[in-house]
Amino acid sequence: MNSDKITKLVLSLGSFILIIVAAGMVYSLVVGSIPAFKTFGFQFIFSNNWDPTSGKENYGALPFIAGTLISSILALLISLPLSFSTSLFLGEYFKGTRVARILSTLVDLLAGIPSIVYGLWGFYVLRPLMIELGIGSQGFGVFTASVILAIMIIPYATSLSNEIISMVPNDLKEAAYSLGATRLEVIQTVTIPNAHSGIIAGYILSFGRALGETMAVTMLIGNSNKVPDSLFGTGNSMASVIANQFGEADGLKLSALIAIGLLLFVITALVNALGKLIIKKMQ
Amino acid sequence: MIQDTIAEIKNPALSIQDLCVYYDQNKAVKNVSVDIKKNTVTAIMGPSGCGKSTLLRALNRMHELYDNIRTEGKVLIHDQNIYDVPAIKLRRQMGMVFQRPNPFPTMSIYENVIAGYKLNGIRLKKGEKDEVVERSLRDVALWDEVKDTLHKKGTFLSGGQQQRLCIARALAFGPEIILMDEPTSALDPIATSKVEDLLVKLKENYTIILVTHNMTQAARISDYSLFMYLGELVEYGKTKNMFTNPIDPRTEQYLTGKFG
Ligand SMILES: Nc1ncnc2c1ncn2[C@@H]1O[C@H](COP(=O)(O)OP(=O)(O)OP(=O)(O)O)[C@@H](O)[C@H]1O
Ligand SMILES: [Mg+2]
């Protein structure tokens, strides 16, 4: 066997193992969640009753699905204006300048901070601020979690849209300027229309990140197993309930948690696939 | 520098006076002075890197988009220095056509033609728009080819059609002067000859300044020629005279293919 063949073998072995691992994960998620789906049927997804009392055990995933979706959507809405203006700043107004380089390094730095650190900061800084603002007596809740989530996803949305915005060909912008356009008009009629699907894809991918975020959310969302009464009320998220209750769970409850994991996996995969699809279509 | 015809040009469309352009410390256009005659095609020739594009782009103040570029000197249009009017107003008087066809990919053919109005926030009635689009596309001899697909994306056209669309876009706003930077270098011979015919026709109504690498093109369609070398204006005059009887040895060397 020559070295070419050996390399090929090693590489395909690696990818093969990867596929096995991924398939195995999905398989064990599906198998693990069968008891829950068998017991509750599709009701599992739509029921908001989460009651682990033995004898009248009942598990419904709605509170967590709602908590995850609401906090992620809210996070997206909060982060949108910030990351959009930052990406325009970096990719258009100050493109190629030192300020832009420094700022974009800072943005990348934000992406590298472990989520537990965000959680801590949220707990000790943001939560007291919420109490002062009169949002909940403890400062926990969906809104607080969303603010932290928003900060956490800003770097993703920003760096992707920045990249797309700076890829808008210069000759198109020059063509617009040569027709007498102002900078704002160039941004409105050339830059954004040419970059918009990439910008949207960036937001979808960062939404995908928000969906799965665990630590920071669990420290702030209040961990009450109900559909939140309001944006400022407490709730729980899919990732967070799994992290919190996994340790002491067995039997049907364990299966319910695994089923939530499976649902989270499916939702996140769909969202990511959508984002990737848009990016692919653009190229 | 030899200017055998400068004195003949009265009421120039554009009077360039002592123009210098710097990229950071590098002086790419060196004290160029030249008068451009109305309703002519004036070709800017010279070897690669001699400053043709840089000179052309100074005329509609394109350099101002970049922080590292500095311009000195005057360019008079109707006796007014272009640096004294707002850049936006100036650029409406000067259409520009680029080397690579660059229709706006998010816009239809129709929208591309009237992009100048849209970009300047000028609202036209539907009928007026239709008129501008048809007139501009007829001007560039593209109307018959695209009149049934006006609402398709401009990027579906062939390269030559795209370039004519870009010329129509530059014409739609009614400029006086059209600046063109090697507009046919990305086109095949047939598309090139269409654009060349077009330029000859357009000079009845417009003044055209054309950067070209192609000497036969300059000889075919330009009335005046301007030869640049290393940022300097070496020779300027009637194209016929320059091609038959160049005065500066560097012009002669270039025209006989010694460099370039
Ligand atoms: N953006 C820029 N930054 C720095 N220097 C530049 C820039 N553009 C051009 N130059 C320099 O200015 C000089 C003139 O360039 P210019 O593009 O005007 O030449 P040209 O005559 O148009 O050449 P070509 O025929 O290859 O298009 C060259 O030496 C070039 O290196
Ligand atoms: Mg050039």
Our count of helices of chain B gives 11
Count of separate structural domains of chain B = 1
CATH architecture title of chain B: 3-Layer(aba) Sandwich
CATH architecture of the largest domain in chain A: Orthogonal Bundle
Average pLDDT value of chain A?
A: 91
How does this structure look, described?
- Chain B: Keywords: ATP-binding, Nucleotide-binding, Phosphate transport, Transport.
- Chain B: GO terms for molecular function: ATP binding; ATP hydrolysis activity; phosphate transmembrane transporter activity.
- Chain B: It comes from Mangrovibacterium marinum.
- Chain A is mostly helical and 283 residues long.
- Chain A folds into two domains: 3-51; 62-282, Orthogonal Bundle (MetI-like fold).
- Chain A contains eleven helices and no strands.
- Chain A has helices at residues 3-40, 43-46, 62-93, 98-112, 115-132, 142-167, 170-178, 183-212, 215-220, 238-245, 251-282.
- In chain A, helix 4 packs across helix 6 (142-167).
- The two termini of chain A are 40 Å apart.
- The mean pLDDT of chain A is 91.
- By secondary structure, chain B is an alpha/beta fold.
- Chain B has one domain: P-loop containing nucleotide triphosphate hydrolases (Rossmann fold).
- Helices cover 35% and strands 25% of the residues of chain B.
- Chain B is built from eleven helices and eleven strands.
- Chain B has helices spanning 52-59, 87-93, 109-113, 115-119, 126-139, 143-146, 159-172, 189-202, 215-221, 239-244, 249-255; strands spanning 2-3, 14-23, 26-36, 41-45, 69-77, 80-81, 94-97, 177-181, 207-211, 224-229, 232-238.
- In chain B, strand 10 and strand 11 form a beta hairpin.
- In chain B, helix 5 (126-139) crosses helix 7 (159-172) and helix 7 (159-172) packs parallel to helix 8 (189-202).
- Chain B starts with a strand and ends in a 5-residue tail after the last helix.
- The model of chain B has no long low-confidence stretch (mean pLDDT 91).
- The chains are: A mainly alpha (283), B alpha/beta (260).
- Chains A and B meet through helix 7 and helix 8 of A and helix 2, strand 7, helix 4 and helix 7 of B.
